[in-house]
Amino acid sequence: MSFVDKALRCRECGRDFVFTAGEQEFYQLKGLLNEPARCPECRAMRKSQRSSDGSGGRGSESRSTREMHPAVCAECGAQTLVPFLPRGDKPVYCSTCFDRVRSGQ
């Protein structure tokens, strides 16, 4: 498919900007269906505002507020905290033992 540069209007600032053929190809490769609604400057400003307010964008929680659950390491028996609710059907490891098990040592 051949792409050509396309003129779009930013919904934030109202200025016209070019949605280049290269950007259109990138959007298609990534499976993005919608054209950008904001110019590159407004997108960058919006992205910096999202990252500075601590939300990380898309409503994600920061790692410091992640809910942790108590567990006993299946390898060494130490009390540990994990970021998921252990179900009991799979072994749970502390971070030291997890690294060792994952590396195959």
Major sheet characteristics: 2 strands, antiparallel
Strand content of the residues, in percent? Answer: 15-25%
Number of strands: 4
SSE string: EEHHEEH
Summarize the structure in words.
The structure is a single chain. The protein has 105 residues and is α+β, with helices and mostly antiparallel strands. It folds into two domains: 6-52, no CATH class; 67-103, no CATH class. Helix content is 30%, strand content 15%. The protein contains three helices and four strands. The chain has helices at residues 21-29, 40-52, 95-103, and strands at 6-9, 16-19, 69-72, 79-82. Strand 3 and strand 4 (79-82) form a beta hairpin.
What is shown here, in short?
With 105 residues, the protein is an alpha+beta fold. It has helices at 21-29, 40-52, 95-103, and strands at residues 6-9, 16-19, 69-72, 79-82.
